[in-house]
TrEMBL record, chain A:
It is found in: Endomembrane system; Membrane. Its EC number is 1.6.5.-. The chain crosses the membrane at residues 6-23, 35-56, 76-100, 112-131, 137-157, 169-189, 209-225, 246-264, 270-297, 304-322, 328-353, 374-395, 415-438, 525-548, 560-578, 702-722. Residues 132-404 form the NADH:quinone oxidoreductase/Mrp antiporter transmembrane domain. This is NADH-quinone oxidoreductase subunit L. Residues 452-509 are annotated as: Disordered. Residues 452-482 have a biased composition (Low complexity). GO terms for molecular function: oxidoreductase activity.
Automatic annotation (TrEMBL), chain B:
NDH-1 shuttles electrons from NADH, via FMN and iron-sulfur (Fe-S) centers, to quinones in the respiratory chain. Couples the redox reaction to proton translocation (for every two electrons transferred, four hydrogen ions are translocated across the cytoplasmic membrane), and thus conserves the redox energy in a proton gradient. The keyword NADP does not apply. InterPro entries: NADH_UbQ/plastoQ_OxRdtase_su6, Nuo/plastoQ_OxRdtase_6_NuoJ. It comes from Streptomyces lycii. Keywords: Cell membrane, Membrane, NAD, Quinone, Transmembrane, Transmembrane helix. Its EC number is 7.1.1.-. The chain crosses the membrane at residues 19-37, 44-62, 68-94, 106-124, 153-175. Its main location: membrane. Gene3D superfamilies: NADH-ubiquinone/plastoquinone oxidoreductase chain 6, subunit NuoJ. This is NADH-quinone oxidoreductase subunit J. Belongs to the complex I subunit 6 family.
From TrEMBL, chain C:
Residues 114-126 have a biased composition (Gly residues). The keyword Oxidoreductase applies. Signal peptide: none annotated. It catalyses: a quinone + NADH + 5 H(+)(in) = a quinol + NAD(+) + 4 H(+)(out). This is NADH-quinone oxidoreductase subunit K.
Amino acid sequence: MTTTTLATLVPLLPFLGAVAGLLTGRRAPGFVRPLAVLPTLAAAVLAVLVALRQGGGDPVDAATRLTPTGSVPIDLALHLDGFAVLVAVLVGLVATCVQLYSTGYLRDDPRYSSYAAFVSLFTAAMLLVVYSGDVMVLLVGWEVMGICSYFLVGHYWETEAARSASLKAFLVTKLGDVPFLIGIFALAADAGTFRINGILTAANSGDGLDHPTLVALLLLAGVAGKSAQFPLHTWLPDAMAGPTPVSALIHAATMVAAGVYFVARLLPVFAASAAAMVVLGLMAAATMVGSALAALAQDDIKRVLAYSTIGQLGYMTGALAVGERGAAVFHLLTHGAFKALLFLGAGVLIHVAGTNSLAAMSRMRDLRQRAPDAFWTMTVALLALAAVPPFSGFFSKEAILGAAEHAALGDAPGVPVLAGWTVLVSGLVTALLTAAYASRLWLLTGVPGAKPESGAAATAEPGPPSTATAAPSPRAASGAAPGPRPAAGPEPGAEAGAGAAGAGAAGPGVAVSGHPARTPFVMNAVLWVLFLPAAGLGVTVGVLPGWFDGHSLAPTLTTSVLGTGLALVGMIVTYATWRLTTSLGRRAPMGAVAAHPGVDPAQSEAEAIATHEPAYGDIAAAHDPADPARLLLGPMHRHAAAGFHLDAVWSALFVRPVRAAARMVRFLDREVVDTYVDGAGGAARLLGAAVRRAQTGNVQTYLGALLAGSVVLAVAAVLVAAGA
Amino acid sequence: MSLLAAQTQGFLSPTGVEIAFLLVGIVTLGAAVVTVTTKQLVHAALWLVVALGGLAVEYLLLTAEFIAWVQVLIYVGSVIVLLLFGLMLTRAPIGRSPDADSGNRWVALGVAVAAAAALVWVVVDAFRATWIDLDGPARGTTEVSGRMLFRHWVLPFEGLSVLLLAALVGAIVLSRLRKDTEEKR
Amino acid sequence: MHLAYPAVLAALLFCTGLYGVLARRNAILVLMSVELMLNAVNLNLVAFDVWLRDALHAGQALTLFTIAIAAAEIGIGLAIVLLVYRNRGSSDIDRLRDLAEGDAQDAAAPPDGPGGTGPGGAGRGPGTPPGDGPDGTDNGGTDNGGTDNKAEAAA
């Protein structure tokens, strides 16, 4: 088979798998798992094969035109260069891992078949985006991802949070997609083609595009929506209401990567406008710093990771802003690996701990022993996230910082110095913050060292007290007394008990068993599969430039020293703060575990999400005095936990005006338009009643009227004829 | 010609035929008005005889003899008899019936008067100076009528016979008692 | 003879017939009025035939045809009236109101009194409850109701 055929099969296989899964899911449950895993696995293998054949050489282009489509033709085009094939390998790898992981994670879920089909469809759409050589075809994949994310984030649609999160994800990304679509049209109108090659040729030619800044800014809106960049990033933390594998898929490889990948593909178009590059740089800086601060304040482990994703995407857009797409895609690859690992590990932790709250996890003594695989792989992934030298994240992040330094010193042609400085400074600050929140996450998820004494770890066991006493779980044993805690606990603990009871009542089908949570084997195995690239992808730093634009991606001395030093500072400060606050935390028993051990991981996560807000009063934060972030951030903690109130700003700027407009439209429709409609109907009815009254059934009346009319007509005719 | 006639035959100097026509016409019209206004149903039928007979006289005055006799035979002889039979079969009250006229009699009067005014105005306006020449050979003797009927109008005449036959059959079908109706009753 | 005499007489006779058609209640009287109208037309035809001296005598031929057709019409018309009388117990035209709109008939019933309800009840035929028809006709007036019942008994 030719490389083109193989590359066509790569998006096609998961798509066919998705269709088959959707069609047969209900009738043949035995086929669901093979149909979910095998096409994705085959696509991953084929993607590797395509990458090996392409080998970073000249781009492979293939196009076919099915039908003429008007003035600007649309082709089914493939464009395989180093970026495309490597990103496709990442997508295939992560999607396969996610599918495998899901077989364990959602093993008892009744909607697993549709879930797996949507994951396959999602993967197919992303692979289409990656391989596509035509902007319109790329847009198809782009939008399919949007709708798939809606369905997947809303997988636990029984919970209010998931419902609103899925709607929010869809609407916010669509808010960016509208300008994106207009931008694509403007771009095609300027370049005269939808083919990416043609667009790049037009952008690089002497006269360039007609409206580079306008096109670039319009496209940036869509990229900001899809890649969760400031200010359209607010959907991403809320999307944590979806199942953990979906979060891993969205964050590591597919949806958010699409925006960065798109800019990387069309970088010459953006580079043609200095203003767009500066905007990109400022956007990246705001995203990076803001999300890192917010990540430091989150209590939900998955929200920490979500903000971290936003921050790392900020790095990528920063690299793009300084014109170094090689570094951006390099970071995309390494980030994909370690962020998938982090999410999947977090899924294991949530299942084992029965909660997604860091405050609760930090009070569990033996979390590490109960989930050793997750602990060790996540440790490495967090080190990669914090860009500690031997791990993958270090190399990609240093490549970005090095490129930013080049741009700041004016060594990069065509890149504004302002963008370079912005990215460099914010990147360094974010390196510090990233190390801080990574180490906070690590410390809070059951780290060796100073532990709270056992009596202080308060856990509220769900379900009836008899269950808790009859089958004491390790956490119940660690608590002072079985059953609901007496009044010793502070306010949140009592609320947690109420919330847990509510959750227990809401789910009577929960299988009550005394066994502690056992992680399915496949989930741990996937962690170790992802561990390899997360730890070791950095060694490819010498090879990758050959696949990309040829710029060296090796770390430079200055930025390496600066970045690593700042990361170390962040880690040390966090550790010190943690030592300080842990002593405080001893005196504050809190923490609620809502989910019952031994149930399906997905179910325990859904319950954890549903009970977080009733238990802690906030979906994002917890009043935990043992949290080092509280001391680190000081008065800023409250705002950071709320994502700097950007949701409120959006609400004031868009949601409320839209609602008011909707109310006004409703008023206009009900009171004004309907008045006319009702009036028209009523007038006709009245007229009808009047006319009906004339229908007496008396023939002579009819005849009289008829003849009277005839007389009038005759007289009129005579008068006209006589000329009177 | 009409101008000439107007000069020779003054409007205010009526001939004997005109006077006779006028008098018979008044009687005819009066009988007709009584026919449509009387409260006694049988009297209405009898007054109709007078009106139709008066019309037959008018036909005679217009030299249409054959039509006059046909009028007498058919109308006075058969139609009136039929009507009287109809009145009897429907058990029309003999004597004055106060509800002989329906409620919209004033509307009817208005329409009729308006129509009469319009028609008379138009007719008088149109034929103010037109005279009929009755002095030539008679227009409607039996011989003349027979010739023209069986020379020029044979086909319509035969068609008319089919129509009459159809009317005969129709009247019988309509007025005979139906078996099923009887059973239902 | 002045043409205006027969023409005016015909017009007046026609309008007299018109009044009769519109104002009379009894269907047979209406038929008489129709006869008057037809005769008015006949008079016109004869008069204009004489005036025009038509070679084909079209006016008089048409008059003969009209008379024949009028005879046929009166036969059919009387048959219909008899049938109506037999079915409804009345030959009053303004009580044959099956064409009336339902609500309007109900609304018109109280002022119209028996006229509204009588034919409505009788018009629904044998399938209706037996109490309805006789009630309506009884309200219509003693003589009418009596004849109606007798007619029904006879039929």
